[in-house]
Amino acid sequence: MIWAPLRGVLKKLVNDEQGFKEGRSSVFVAVESVYSMDGTIAPLQEIVGLLEDLLPKRNGYLVVDEAHATGIYGPQGRGVVAMLGLDDKVFARLHTFGKALAATGAVLLTNTLARDYLLNYARPLIYTTSLSHANIIAADCSFDMLENGTADKLAKQLLDLCAYFLDLLRPELATIPTPILSLPPHLQRPFPNDPSTYPTSLPTPIIPLLTRYPRPLSAYLFERSMNARPITWPTVPKGKDRVRVCLQAGTTREEVEKLAQAVVEWARGVESEQKKEQRHDKKRVMGRAVVGLLESKL
């Protein structure tokens, strides 16, 4: 089970605190539908089932951040929750107007009680500046594309490009040392067509290239007119450095091929340099050994 640790935490809460068992206390579980650094999709159906199973008094609430799913998954780009038909099972959903919708701002979909509470007590909302007319118009134009089906075609094109990019990389990275460059485990194999793994097996537009040298790789790509940003601690845990590739629907297959080729060329160049250094180190060690042997004989 992917979320076994969550089950353990919830079971401990219910067993240790009578209020959770009786429905007097509530549990809120907050997740991203598509995680921004790894590009993994949360098993929302499993989490919903977990909450209903362990908290049958309906005092378990799921909050889903759909920032990286908005405009890409689900009917009219309404996200993973809508794609799975879980609209009535989720307490609140956050959809940003940034990222795929190319505007600014966000909307929180929830019930009337939560909405009224936030309007009166959420300080970041109360004291923020309202959206400009230009941003509202930009978001509205994106909504038009979601409603008329244009975004569905673009989303399919985007996910096809992501799968194609990974298909180009996998056989090349198999011969490159992992510390130099690798894909995370969930991307190392082609996406299965097994319905039981849906939707966690779907491609996402976030592709992390794991490497100890994220800044040199990013700079190498930038010199070739490709912008993929380095991600290091504290954004990700220490030892999990990466370059995050985020493709766009307007990217061509030729550009994806160019990107994959540049990434592999960089990795092979680093590997070659490291082998040269290892040979030089070996020669220096052998040289010291010879000098030591001669000195001992003298």
TrEMBL record:
Its cofactor is pyridoxal 5'-phosphate. Belongs to the class-II pyridoxal-phosphate-dependent aminotransferase family. BioF subfamily. Keywords: Pyridoxal phosphate, Transferase. It holds the Pfam family Aminotran_1_2. GO terms for biological process: biotin biosynthetic process. InterPro entries: Aminotransferase_I/II_large (IPR004839), AON_synthase_class-II (IPR050087), PyrdxlP-dep_Trfase (IPR015424), PyrdxlP-dep_Trfase_major (IPR015421), PyrdxlP-dep_Trfase_small (IPR015422). It comes from the Eukaryota. Coiled coil: none annotated. GO terms for molecular function: pyridoxal phosphate binding; transferase activity. Residues 26-263 form the Aminotransferase class I/classII large domain. This is Aminotransferase class I/classII large domain-containing protein.
